[in-house]
Every structure is written in structure tokens, then in C-alpha cells.
Design brief:
With 680 residues, the chain is an alpha/beta fold. It has 24 helices and 18 strands. Strand 15, helix 20 and strand 16 form a beta-alpha-beta unit. Helix 1 packs parallel to helix 8 and helix 5 packs across helix 8. It is elongated.
Length: 680
């Protein structure tokens, strides 16, 4: 149901318009507000309220539930009890006592700016063009030159109650002003109406951009470094896939992370420039940026023509230097009350000629970190084009990164799901068991690559699971080593690594020995025995390079240990798969890679194999109608229960969870109890 308050409706529409354009603000960055009148739920009297985007929300997708609603008189009364900038963090808790009604989002640190500024509508945004002026060495002078009296410079101050007081005072003292440039941070604009506030925000953003376009140098990053030009696209992406496991090993030493690859023109231009290293060393400036990108990136400072081996060797030294530097940064600024160091690995790795990998606890976090570093590149370009990029000091960056308020927000986050931070590749996953496995792994927090012979069905299955932050679909014929490598590369480029592989692709032709052709034998062994070998080989190569361990699971069959009638080719191929589990468990255990199997039986409903003719063949063997085959299989089991794809998915998920961290070489029956198939 839509909101009925006209003030709120206009605020949400304005917020969504502004947030939809990354030129105006970054994801989850900035906030908007509106003041108006509401009804006190106790007295029934009208009260003045302020609606402001709550903590952690995103303007582009903001809904009424994402707004914090506060009594304006109470927020303004906080001015009289404000203890000063040294204790301003405590004011955030005070906002909770100013809330109106029940529900709503938690008030953000910027609430004071919106409530205390004497304007009905206020926008606080992080546009690249505005931050370029805010981070220029002569930003104050540029602000006056570009905007005149209409926009006022505010020296850097960490977001909080005092900044709200500062902006309110500037608004009161400058009646012609429509907004401010917040040094090192962003912009604020206001208006008497929602449309006026939006127009003023856009005017500041567009005026800053027009000035940069008209007055900026053509080469703000300096000359292109010879030999650091971008590789051709196909070569670039192949190099990115080859480096991805090694880069993830660097980013994930302290905690699991998922990766995101970016090779946009803006990134490649920056990576080829002579100013890459000195500008990267300065780090980002806007608080929203370095909270996600860390204080600075790691630059793999080798030419694109270097071999992968040379890159890996150089990366090892750079990683140790980065970790030592980050620890020193923490120790320089930490106080007895600072939160513990959260890890010393980079969140962004820049590879000249190739692109940028960014990392986070899930794909969305990793993608947003990359988007934020692109914002930072745009900011550096703008500032360098008209001045010199001069971000806030290292000490101020630390105060933001290790802010107790941010730490409290992290502590409030729910515990990660069992497979969070893991990347899975499932073969034959467009239908049946594979599809159920992919769905279940994604539900437990994994990023999933759905590989299938049918590309359209693979993409459809991925879309059913969620966005490309969760699942992607690719075509892969597992009998073709090149297509298997391409599927693994797709996982590396989509999610930065690979942790879990499920060999599920299969088919079956039910015939007695004398009717089984060589072609029947070859196709079943090619898909299941050879295909599983190729997938496991390609996956193990990545997992070993990452050094993070991993899981390989074979969806084998009860038939791998049970001798049934008229099934020579299928059962022999499944027995091959079953022994691959044992062989690879023995070989890969030293790398922390677990290899286990699942032996289903009688999975008729939802099965791609049974729907493709196998069901009719097996029904004929047992002399039952095809539609009764599932019930027939159930009645021959000890538990008298029909096995569904979801039951196999449960076993795969359990085997690859931390609860089975010490288990490898195991085959788990999922057959409702077939005594003849008991493992001995």
C-alpha cells in the first residue's frame, strides 16, 4: 500500500529520482528529508515532524519503511543539552527518544543536519562533481568562484550533531545560499518545497560538473605509462580470470570475501596513468567511500605484459607490505577505546592493463565497493583537473573507519548464513537435482554459477534464484575441456573465486547389455566420468591457487554400489564417479579440499533425467506405469518415502557446511533406505 501523506510521497519521489542517477550520489550514500505536520497518536493533536532517510538505506530504492520519523520540537530541544563535539556521538542515541509513533528506520548520524537546518526540505548528497570540489586543495576558493553567494564552503567536519549545527548556522547567516559544499565530503542543498530542494541539488551538481568540463585539464592523471595500456578485451578478461584466484588469496586471508571485477574505461584510464600510484596512495576521501574501499587500494605495479607467474611473485611481497602498512596505520591512530582491527587485507586491488577487483562479505558489498572506487577515480580526476586532489587526513579517515557508531552498526547485523562468502559452481543445474542444489546453496548465502548444456535454461534458473549478485547462468558442455574452463572463468569473473563444485551433470540410457551400443556407453561415460574429472580438475586448480580449501561434491547414485538390471553403462559411469571421490579426497586433502559424494535413488519428480525418457525406460523394466514410478521406488525403501531433488540438495548443503569440516571421502545415501546399497 502506498503512503497517504503528501509530504512523504513527494519526499520519496524526490529521493528515488536523485538516487537513481549515480552522478547525484553513490549507493546507500547521502540522505534526504522533509518537514511537515502529523498527528500525535496519543493526543490526536497536530505536531511538527521531520521525515529523514534512515541509517543504511538507499535513496534510489527508498520506501516509507526506510524513513525515520522524529518530533521536530524534540530534536531542536537537543541543542540545549548538546554536550559539545567531544561527546557528540552520544547524541545519536538521543534521536531514539525523539521518534514519532511506532516502527520506522533507525535515525542516521546526519539527522541533525536535516532537522536543524531551517528549511522544509533538505538534501545531502555525494556527487562526484561536488566531491571533486570538496577535495580540491583550494576547494574553498573554487566554491566561491563557481557558485558565488549561492553555495557556501564548510570546512571538513566529521558527520554528526556539530556539523548539523554548522550547516544550520550557515543557512541562517547566508539568506541567498541554496546549499553548501562540505569539505572532503559532499554537498547539502535545501528548498521551501520538495521540487525546489531537488532543483537546487541538481543545480549545484550540474554547475560543478560544467565548471570541471570547461576548465579542467585534458590529462588530469598525467601521461599514459608506456606498456601499461589496457590489454584487448578478450586478453584482458582471460588475464583477469587467471589472476583472480591469487588476488582472492590476498583479499581473503583474514575473512571470507566474494569478489567483483570491473574493467570500465574510467578504471582502465586511471590504471594506465603516471599518477596511478601517488593518487592511489592518497586513498579516498568521502566517508561513504573508504568505509567500503578501505583507506587505500593495493596496486599490482607490474606491466600487463608480465607473466602470471611474475604477477603472483610480486603480489606476495606487495600483500605483506600492505598488511604491515595497514597495521601501522591502525596502531598510529587507535586509542584504548577503538574497536579491534577488522583485518589488514585490501578491499580493492588495481591491476594495470586489466582492471579492478573489489571484495566484500557478499557480491553486493563487493560490487558496491568497486562502484565507490570508480566514484573515487572520478573525484580524483575532477580535483586534479582544476587543482590538486587533497583528501581528508589519515587521522580523520581512521576516526570514520573505526567509529564506534559504525562498529555498533556492524554488531547489529545478523549472523552470516552457513555458506556466506562462498562461490559455488553446479553443473547440470538448469533442472532437477542441480537446480534444487543451486537454490539451496544460494538460500544459505552462497553465490552460485548455474552451468548447463542449455544456456537459456541456465540463465532462467539463475534469474529464478535472484539477481546477478546471487546467481548467474552459463552454458557448459562438461565433456569439452574448453567449455569447462570457460565456466570456471565465468565464476571467477562474476564472483572473484570458486570454493564449491557440485558435479551433477548427467544422463541415462536404460538398456540391457546386449542392446547397449558403444555410443550409449561413450556418451554416458563422457558426461559423467570424464565430465566430472574435467570439472574437478579445473576447480581444483583454482582452489589450490586460492589456498582457501574448498569442497567438491559428486552427485553419484545408489547404482554406483548396487547392481540393478538393464543398466550397465549408467551404473558403470556412476561407479567411476564414486571412485573419483575417494581418489581425489586422498589427493586434495593436503590443500584443505574436501571431496564427498551423494548417492540418490528414485528421484523422479522434478528430475530432468527421468523426464527425458529414463523414467519410461525404468518403468518398463519394473512393469509399472511411468506416473507411478516415484511411488514404486518409495515402496521398496526402508522408510517408504519418495526422494525429491530437495532432499539431495539438503545433503549437499550439509556436507559442504562447517559442521562437516572434518569429513572427506564420504558417500551419503539419499535413497530413503535401500539395504542392497548400504555402503560396506
Amino acid at each position: 500500500m502506498g503512503c497517504v501523506n503528501e509530504t512523504v510521497a513527494r519526499l520519496l519521489a524526490r529521493s528515488n529520482r536523485l538516487g537513481a542517477d549515480p552522478a547525484n550520489t553513490n549507493y546507500a550514500g547521502g540522505n534526504t528529508s522533509a518537514k511537515g505536520v502529523g498527528t500525535d497518536p496519543v493526543t490526536g493533536r497536530e505536531v511538527e515532524l521531520v521525515w529523514v532517510k534512515g541509517s543504511g538505506g538507499d535513496l534510489g530504492t527508498l520506501t516509507e519503511a526506510g524513513l525515520a520519523v522524529l518530533r521536530l520540537d524534540r530534536v531542536r530541544a537537543l541543542v540545549d543539552v548538546y554536550p559539545g563535539v567531544g561527546r557528540e556521538d552520544g547524541m545519536v542515541a538521543a534521536f531514539d527518544h525523539c521518534l514519532h509513533g511506532r516502527g520506522g528506520a533507525a535515525p542516521s548520524i546526519d539527522t541533525a543536519m536535516h532537522a536543524l537546518v531551517d528549511a522544509a526540505h533538505v538534501d545531502h548528497l555525494h556527487p562526484d562533481s561536488g566531491i571533486a570540489i570538496a577535495t580540491a586543495a583550494d576547494g574553498e576558493e573554487l566554491t566561491g568562484k563557481i557558485f558565488g553567494e549561492r553555495v557556501v564552503w564548510v570546512p571538513w567536519r566529521r558527520p554528526g550533531f556539530q556539523l548539523g549545527l554548522d550547516v544550520a548556522a550557515i543557512k541562517a547567516a547566508n539568506p541567498r545560499a541554496v546549499g553548501t559544499v562540505l569539505g572532503g565530503h559532499g554537498i547539502t542543498a535545501w528548498g521551501a518545497t520538495s521540487d525546489e530542494a531537488e532543483a537546487n541539488s541538481r543545480w549545484i551538481i550540474e554547475t560543478a560538473r560544467a565548471y570541471l568540463d570547461a576548465h579542467g585539464k585534458a590529462d588530469p592523471f598525467g601521461a599514459v605509462v608506456p606498456g601499461h595500456e589496457p590489454l584487448p578485451e578478450a586478453e584482458r578478461r582471460a588475464r583477469a580470470a587467471a589472476l583472480a584466484p591469487h588476488l582472492r588469496a590476498v583479499a581473503a586471508r583474514d575473512r571470507p570475501v566474494v569478489g567483483h571485477f570491473t574493467d570500465s574505461p574510467a578504471v582502465l584510464e586511471f590504471l594506465a596513468s603516471e599518477k596511478l600510484v601517488p593518487l592511489a596512495e592518497l586513498g579516498t576521501s568521502c566517508p561513504d567511500h573508504f568505509l567500503r574501499t578501505k583507506v587505500k587500494p593495493l596496486v599490482l605495479d607490474v606491466p600487463p605484459a608480465a607473466s602470471v607467474e611474475e604477477c603472483v611473485a610480486r603480489l606476495a611481497g606487495l600483500h605483506e607490505a600492505y598488511r604491515a602498512d595497514y597495521r601501522a596505520y591502525y596502531e598510529r591512530h587507535a586509542t584504548p577505546g577503538s574497536p579491534p582491527m577488522r583485518g589488514a587485507d585490501p578491499a580493492v586491488v588495481l591491476v594495470p592493463g586489466v582492471g579492478m577487483f573489489s571484495y566484500g562479505k557478499d557480491k553486493q558489498t563487493a560490487r558496491v565497493a568497486g562502484e565507490f572506487y570508480v566514484n573515487a577515480i572520478n573525484v580524483m580526476r575532477g580535483a586534479e583537473s582544476v587543482s590538486r586532489y587533497s583528501p581528508i587526513s589519515e587521522a580523520e579517515k581512521f576516526r570514520i573507519e573505526y567509529w564506534e557508531l559504525e562498529e555498533a552498526k556492524l554488531r547489529r547485523m545478523p549472523a552470516p548464513r552457513s555458506h556466506a562468502g562462498r562461490v559455488a559452481l553446479v553443473t547440470g543445474a538448469a533442472s532437477g537435482i542441480g537446480r534444487a542444489v543451486a537454490r539451496r546453496l544460494a538460500a544459505e548465502g552462497a553465490c552460485v554459477v548455474i552451468a548447463d548444456l542449455d544456456a537459456d535454461e541456465a540463465r532462467a534458473a539463475a534469474e529464478e534464484i535472484g539477481s546477478t549478485d546471487v546467481a548467474v547462468g552459463v552454458r557448459a558442455d562438461v565433456t569439452d575441456a574448453g567449455q569447462v574452463r570457460a565456466a570456471v572463468d565465468a565464476a571467477l569473473l562474476a564472483f572473484g573465486g570458486l570454493d564449491l563444485v557440485v558435479n551433477n551433470a548427467g544422463l541415462s540410457i536404460s538398456k540391457p547389455l546386449l542392446e547397449t551400443t558403444e555410443a550409449d556407453w561413450d556418451v554416458q561415460h563422457d558426461v559423467m566420468a570424464r565430465g566430472s574429472f574435467l570439472v574437478s580438475q579445473a576447480a581444483a586448480r583454482v582452489m589450490i591457487a586460492q589456498g582457501l580449501g574448498g569442497d567438491i561434491v559428486y552427485v553419484s547414485s545408489k547404482n554406483s554400489v548396487f547392481a540393478g538390471p538393464d543398466n550397465i553403462a549408467y551404473s558403470a559411469a556412476k561407479a567411476d564417479q564414486a571412485h573419483q571421490v575417494r581418489l581425489l579426497a586422498a589427493e586434495l586433502g593436503g590443500h584443505g579440499i574436501r571431496v564427498n559424494g551423494v548417492n540418490p535413488d528414485g528421484v523422479v519428480r522434478g528430475s530432468g533425467i527421468f523426464a527425458g525418457g529414463w523414467g519410461a525406460q525404468r518403468a518398463a523394466v519394473y512393469g509399472v506405469p511411468e506416473e507411478e514410478l516415484g511411488r514404486f521406488y518409495a515402496q521398496r525403501t526402508l522408510l517408504k518415502r519418495e526422494v525429491l531433488p530437495e532432499h539431495v540438495a539438503n545433503a549437499v548443503t550439509a556436507l559442504t557446511s562447517a559442521e562437516f569440516s572434518h569429513t572427506t571421502g564420504l558417500h551419503v545415501p539419499v535413497d530413503a533406505g535401500v539395504a542392497a546399497a548400504f555402503l560396506r
